[in-house]
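Q: what sequence does this backbone want?
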């Protein structure tokens, strides 16, 4: 019925197909079939019945010309969701057919693939129509018409083909079908298409074409052959090959043959692995690759082992595979692989051990891969060539297989033990190696060796003779592998008819391998055994024979020979003659040991005769003109012998001082029986020579009146140089040579050094001198050295580049307050508008006389301004180039101030410079037309700021004044003289020891002068010491004035050197007092108040400000006068210093009088001005009238002790958190600072009003404390102590026992070590008596009850001070012992905060009770944060209010209500300083001072 609903082709009168095939794809193949899929789709909107559809598959063989489409009769199709058998049962019926009228149902999978649509009609068939071909013609019988579903696709479309259809209840719109086309040719490509129609009366619909191919045979190029390993007879390999799609590989065959021309192929079938692995998808058809939707081909590994091969042979191997299509067309490319190789020849043959009949050879072999060596063969060279040696034993290391149990290529060591050899025979041996592949291709390189031989003949014997005995000793080397077993000594009388007699020798010692000699019998026997066993070591043994009972004074012939296991030595040793004798033998080894000026030391050895008297005399003879003459007064001593039975002698032979003469000497030895028969061999020797002339003379350093010379003079042997004679003369006409004053010549490197040095003194400055010298020793004088020319130090030289650099500063350059104490900068002008000039100079320092003063002026009539030198590093010498800087006031310049920038660039200045050193002042050097530059400023920088920066840099870099340079010169001169004294002391000891009285006299006189100079210079150095000169004292100025006045009243200013030292000291002390003492005194009154040094309490700020202002006003006018007088006076002082150091005359030093007068004037003016200032200073030191108590500091040892106790406590306490809290406590102990040295307790004396005393300390009590102060003044002291808090924080004062018991000390230390102990102790402590613990706010006072101790004048009360409250107190700052009934002020020395009570003065307005005033007296801004009291604060609680105060500002801060009676914490943070804390009450004032 579905066919009746198809459309009809009106032109042809047939119905069009109601079912259209589409989406034809290739999905699989085998060797003779392919599988395709296609979709049946309804042509219109009317669904179709699958049981009425007929399909036909047509093929076109690819690559065949003229072929046409052919229908396949054996092709079958079925829905994709079910198999062909299931579909056949569904379509044609089953044994149990459904009842009539029931329609079979498609499976759910088929319906899902088909997209079934339920049908509303029950028609089971449609009217049949003619079928059509591809051209649209209707054949008589469509040969390829597909019958109904499930039937054979090749049957004719007759009505009987649809007779067996079973009606279905479902009608479909699409259905995916699978068609299998069998009976194809393998390895052939095809083109397929599908024709379908819904009924036999309809024409066919044709699908698109699809190309397919059947399965291929295996490809040889896809086979990958890999060789795993080899042995001598096998090759192991595997092949990886992919299975062709649809035709998996069934067999894999390997063919192999020997790599030769006429060999035949053998085969081996490989075995596959159980599980294949996938390869990439796609298949090849012809030259094109057809991508399919089927799974990719699988790769399978085939394994096999080729056995029964020949060793060391190459084989050609190829592979091919077989599947259902057939064997692969080609083989794989032939691979050449060989079995394991034969071994290489053994290497590194070395003969290790040799014996008389055997030898051991060590060698190395290399195992080929897969075939380790297992057998060796040895060949010996004979008359007919090499032949096999059968008596061999081989020992080789076992072969080690690899991780895959295959033997890799490896090296092994082996030993070959050769037996059956002949002794004393040379052998040449080769070795062959063998493995499973065969013997090595070549033999090893030959190794030559010789078996053990008999001993060699003895070379020499040592004989010790006695009256009736001979002791014969010798050393002999044992042959390798055959030690000596017997040694015989034969002797006979030296006559014609005497016969030889033999005696066996015994070994007495053996030489070890390290060169040591052992006499132990066990060691001797062990050496023999080791030599026999190893056959490689050689031992040297010492043998001895004692012949006794011989005739006296009789000559004997001696010879010896040895025997070992091989036989006797081939010959005897050379015969030697020995004579029994009573006299000593001939001395031997005569040599000159050392030379002296009047003789020589000889050394000689004499063998001691056995059994007779020892040597007791030595006779020395000297060769004369005609005969040998005995030398008298010979001294000889016997020293410790180096060998047994030998005496060694040291002989001194006096020959007299005769340098250059050669003496020939010989020695006789004697004993009680007489001289020896023969003397020693003669020896030529000489006495000591004269010194050579000094050489390499050079000037190491120069001074104004001295030259430091160094030279080289080697010491002759036995006669070292004593001293030198030095002569000099001026390089001038008619000058004559004169002895130079240079007695302190000394060796530079100590005894034995050939380099000498000396200082030539009492010379003129800036003068040329010619110097020559000669050396003196015990032998005599040397020749004079060549003349050399040297020059002493001269005046400073100001010529030469670079010229001075002049710069202008638009602001004045004041003397900085932080400048060094020795300040000699010219004062800056008073007005800022004047400005300053900077003049930078570079001056060369003459050697030995550095520039001490430099003065600069801007015009010819202007004042001289003293320049300053660049600061020097302490302890370093003054450099040869000095950088100086002078600051010139602008009103002293020679040019008017410019107005414009162009004028500034064109402005020039004239500068005059002069310099002075220890020689004097240089001439004035004028520099005209120097360009004047402005101070360098960065882009956008204010020029005034650049000027200020230049001023600071000037104060830091150029901080070395003239006074500093003179002080350095004094200490340098003192150090030079002290070194000279040490040299003279050593020289005097040497001269005294050798008895040189002339030199001793000269050295003693010079040493006395040097001691006087050192005393003078020590006095001067003590006066110029900065620490001594800067010590404050009220009588220094008065004392200096008196001494200067007394010195100027003398008629002759410097009559003697001590007086000259006094004058020099006065001059230097005067300028140092002007430069340092007044500054030191001002620093004492300002810096000591700031830091509270020496227990001086803090005083009010008004007195300090007034005193500093007076000092600044006075120093601005006083520095100018000092700067004008200082250079001239210090130059004279330097000249006097140089004169004292060189010992010149002092008549020319009367010019110092004018400098003394100028210094006296300045000192007097300074003393008058200081007397005005001392009154103010006494006010600041008023607190010294009270008693100050310093607290004990906690050093490193105390912290170590506390740490150790803390660790022990942590281990003992069984409380949770003990370790954590103890560790934190120990860490904080090392991090926190020690505050004991920054606090002090001042005990005020009784009988003095307490109120004014507290006011002078700067911490007046509040008005409510007036009752306590008034009661204290009335005498209510007994039983209490008045404590005053002068710190900015609350303090806790506790009364402690005067003396700690052992228990209290232990508890205190444990409390300090761990917080748990401290808290437990505090919880168990009970208070007895009155109020022994009080909390005192800042500026407040309180009465502290103390125990009644009887006599209060003798007893003391110990107070403990700490910060905080009773419940939250910090660690104790310290303890103080005070008297009961006294008043104590607790002060902090290093704080910058001060708490005061408002008194409503005119300068300080009243502070409201609910506010707090903050005053910043610092030079920088500060940040203030106000918090609640520490005991009321919560964790991480912030500040109530925060304020930023600029310098000099003050602010009244309101506090939160209610605030009456409360305490507030104020944190103050200054720039660059640590945070400080204060605790104040409402209505008080917190002042921030800039003293910290």
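A:
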């Amino acid at each position: 019925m579905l066919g009746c609903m198809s459309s009809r082709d009106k032109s042809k009168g047939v119905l069009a197909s109601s079912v259209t095939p589409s989406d034809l794809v290739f999905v699989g193949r085998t060797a003779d079939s392919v599988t395709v899929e296609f979709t049946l789709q309804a042509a219109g909107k009317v669904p179709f019945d699958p049981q009425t559809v007929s399909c036909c598959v047509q093929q076109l063989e690819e690559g065949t010309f003229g072929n046409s489409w052919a229908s396949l009769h054996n092709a079958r199709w079925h829905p994709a969701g079910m198999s062909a058998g299931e579909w056949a049962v569904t379509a044609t019926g089953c044994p149990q057919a459904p009842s009539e009228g029931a329609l079979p149902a498609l499976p759910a999978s088929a319906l899902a693939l088909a997209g079934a649509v339920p049908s509303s009609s029950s028609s089971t068939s449609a009217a049949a129509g003619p079928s059509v071909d591809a051209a649209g013609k209707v054949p008589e019988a469509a040969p390829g018409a597909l019958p109904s579903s499930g039937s054979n696709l090749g049957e004719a479309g007759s009505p009987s083909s649809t007779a067996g259809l079973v009606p279905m209840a479902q009608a479909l719109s699409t259905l995916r079908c699978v068609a299998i086309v069998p009976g194809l040719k393998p390895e052939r490509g095809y083109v397929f298409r599908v024709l379908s129609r819904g009924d036999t009366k309809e024409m066919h619909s044709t699908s698109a074409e699809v190309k397919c191919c059947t399965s291929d045979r295996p490809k040889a190029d896809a086979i990958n052959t890999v060789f795993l390993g080899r042995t001598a007879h096998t090759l192991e390999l595997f092949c990886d090959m992919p299975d062709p799609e649809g035709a998996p590989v069934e067999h894999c065959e390997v063919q192999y043959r020997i790599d030769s021309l006429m060999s035949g192929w053998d085969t081996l079938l490989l075995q596959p692995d159980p599980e294949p692995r996938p390869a990439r998808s796609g298949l090849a058809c012809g030259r094109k690759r057809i991508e399919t939707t089927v799974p990719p081909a699988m790769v399978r590994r085939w394994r096999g082992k080729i056995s029964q091969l020949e060793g060391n042979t190459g084989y050609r191997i190829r592979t091919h595979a077989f599947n259902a299509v057939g064997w692969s067309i080609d083989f794989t490319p032939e691979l050449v692989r060989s079995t394991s190789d034969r071994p290489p020849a053994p290497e590194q043959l070395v003969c290790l051990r040799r014996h008389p009949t055997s030898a051991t050879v060590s060698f190395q072999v290399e195992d080929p891969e897969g075939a380790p060596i297992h057998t060796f063969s040895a060949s010996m060279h004979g008359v007919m060539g090499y032949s096999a040696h059968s008596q061999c034993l081989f020992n080789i290391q076992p072969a080690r297989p690899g991780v895959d149990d295959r033997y890799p290529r490896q090296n092994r060591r082996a030993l070959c033990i050769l037996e059956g050899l002949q002794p004393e025979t040379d052998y040449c041996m080769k070795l062959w190696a063998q493995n499973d592949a065969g013997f090595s291709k070549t033999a090893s390189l030959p190794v030559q060796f010789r078996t053990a031989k008999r001993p060699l003949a003895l070379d020499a014997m040592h004989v010790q003779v006695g009256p009736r005995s001979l002791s014969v000793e010798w050393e002999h080397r044992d042959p390798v592998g055959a030690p000596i077993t017997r040694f015989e000594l034969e002797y006979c009388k030296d006559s014609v008819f005497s016969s030889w007699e033999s005696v066996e020798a015994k070994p007495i010692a053996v030489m070890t391998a390290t060169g040591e000699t052992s006499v132990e019998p066990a060691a001797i026997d062990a050496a023999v055994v080791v030599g026999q066993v190893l056959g490689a070591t050689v031992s040297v043994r010492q043998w001895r024979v004692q012949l006794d009972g011989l005739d006296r004074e009789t000559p004997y012939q001696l010879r010896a020979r040895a025997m070992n296991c091989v036989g006797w030595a081939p010959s005897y040793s050379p015969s030697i003659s020995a004579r029994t004798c009573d006299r000593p033998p001939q001395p031997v080894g005569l040599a000159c040991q050392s030379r002296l000026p009047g003789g020589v030391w000889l050394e000689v050895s004499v063998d001691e005769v056995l059994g007779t008297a020892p040597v007791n005399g030595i006779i020395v003879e000297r060769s004369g003109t005609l005969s040998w003459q005995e030398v008298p007064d010979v001294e000889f001593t016997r020293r410790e012998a180096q060998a047994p039975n030998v005496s060694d002698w040291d002989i001194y032979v006096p020959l007299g001082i005769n340098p250059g003469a050669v003496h020939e000497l010989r020695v006789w030895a004697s004993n009680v029986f007489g001289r020896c028969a023969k003397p020693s061999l003669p020896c030529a020797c000489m006495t000591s020579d004269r010194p050579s002339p000094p050489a390499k003379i050079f000037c190491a350093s120069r001074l104004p009146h001295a030259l430091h010379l160094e030279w080289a003079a080697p010491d002759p042997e036995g006669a070292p140089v004593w001293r030198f004679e030095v002569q000099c003369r001026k390089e001038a006409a008619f000058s004559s040579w004169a002895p130079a004053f240079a007695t302190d010549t000394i060796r530079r490197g100590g005894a034995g050094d050939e380099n000498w040095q000396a200082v030539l003194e009492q010379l003129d400055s800036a003068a040329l001198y010619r110097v020559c010298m000669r050396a003196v020793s015990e032998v005599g004088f040397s020749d004079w050295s060549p003349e050399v020319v040297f020059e002493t130090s001269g005046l400073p030289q100001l010529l030469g580049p670079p010229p001075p650099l002049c710069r202008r500063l638009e602001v004045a350059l004041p003397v900085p307050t932080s400048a060094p104490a020795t300040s000699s900068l010219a004062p800056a002008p008073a007005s800022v508008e004047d400005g300053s000039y900077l003049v930078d100079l570079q001056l060369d320092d003459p050697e030995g006389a550095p520039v001490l003063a430099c003065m600069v002026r801007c015009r010819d009539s202007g004042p001289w301004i003293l320049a300053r030198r660049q600061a020097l590093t302490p302890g370093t010498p003054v450099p040869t180039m000095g950088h100086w800087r002078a600051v010139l006031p602008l009103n002293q310049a020679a040019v008017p101030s410019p107005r414009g920038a162009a004028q500034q660039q064109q402005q020039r200045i004239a500068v005059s410079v002069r310099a002075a050193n220890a020689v004097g002042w240089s001439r004035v050097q004028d520099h005209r037309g120097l360009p004047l530059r402005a101070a360098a400023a960065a882009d956008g920088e204010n020029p005034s700021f650049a000027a200020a920066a230049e001023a600071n840099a000037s104060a830091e870099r150029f901080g070395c004044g003239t006074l500093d340079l003179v002080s350095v010169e004094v200490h340098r001169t003192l150090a030079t003289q002290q070194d000279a004294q040490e040299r003279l002391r050593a020289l005097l000891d040497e001269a005294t020891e050798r008895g040189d009285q002339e030199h001793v006299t000269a050295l003693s006189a010079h040493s006395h002068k040097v001691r006087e100079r050192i005393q003078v210079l020590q006095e001067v150095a003590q006066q110029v010491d900065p620490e001594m000169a800067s010590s404050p004292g009220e009588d220094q100025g008065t004392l200096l004035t008196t001494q200067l006045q007394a010195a100027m009243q003398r008629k002759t200013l410097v009559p003697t050197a001590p007086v000259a030292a006094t004058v020099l000291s006065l001059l230097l002390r005067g300028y140092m007092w002007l430069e340092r003492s007044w500054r030191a005194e001002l620093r004492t009154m300002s810096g000591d108040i700031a830091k509270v040094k020496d227990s001086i309490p803090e005083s009010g700020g008004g007195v300090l400000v007034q005193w500093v202002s007076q000092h600044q006003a006075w120093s601005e006018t006083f520095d100018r006068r000092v700067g004008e007088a200082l250079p001239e006076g210090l130059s004279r002082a330097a000249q006097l210093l140089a004169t004292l150091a060189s010992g010149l005359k002092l008549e020319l030093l009367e010019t110092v009088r004018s400098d003394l007068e100028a210094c006296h004037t300045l000192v007097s003016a300074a003393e008058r001005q200081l007397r005005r200032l001392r009154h103010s200073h006494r006010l600041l030191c008023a607190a010294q009238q009270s008693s100050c108590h310093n607290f004990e500091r906690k050093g490193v040892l105390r912290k170590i002790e506390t740490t150790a106790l803390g660790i022990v406590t942590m281990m003992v306490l069984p409380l949770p958190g003990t370790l954590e809290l103890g560790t934190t406590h120990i860490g904080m102990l090392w991090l926190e600072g020690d505050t004991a040295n920054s606090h002090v307790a001042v005990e005020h004396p009784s009988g003095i009003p307490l109120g004014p005393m507290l006011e002078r300390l700067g911490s007046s009590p509040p008005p409510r404390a007036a009752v306590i102060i008034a009661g204290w003044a009335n005498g209510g002291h007994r039983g209490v102590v008045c404590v005053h808090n002068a710190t900015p924080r609350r303090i806790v004062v506790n009364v402690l026992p005067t003396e700690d018991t052992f228990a209290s000390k232990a508890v205190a230390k444990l409390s300090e070590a761990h917080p748990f102990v401290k808290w437990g102790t505090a919880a168990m402590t009970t208070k007895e008596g009155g109020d022994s613990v009080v909390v005192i706010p800042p500026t407040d006072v309180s009465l502290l009850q103390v125990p009644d101790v009887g006599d209060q004048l003798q007893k003391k009360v110990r107070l403990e001070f700490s910060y905080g409250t009773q419940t939250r107190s910090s660690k104790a700052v310290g303890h103080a012992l005070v008297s009961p009934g006294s008043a104590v002020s607790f002060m902090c020395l290093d704080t910058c905060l001060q708490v005061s009570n408002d008194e409503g003065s005119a300068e300080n307005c009243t502070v409201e009770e609910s506010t707090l005033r903050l005053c910043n007296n610092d030079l920088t801004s500060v940040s203030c944060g106000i918090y609640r009291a520490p005991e009321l604060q919560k964790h991480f609680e912030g500040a109530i209010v925060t304020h930023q105060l600029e310098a000099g500002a003050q602010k009244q801060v309101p506090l939160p209500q209610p605030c009456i009676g409360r305490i507030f914490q104020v944190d103050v943070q200054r720039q660059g300083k640590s945070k400080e804390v204060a605790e104040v009450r409402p209505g008080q004032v917190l002042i921030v001072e800039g003293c910290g």
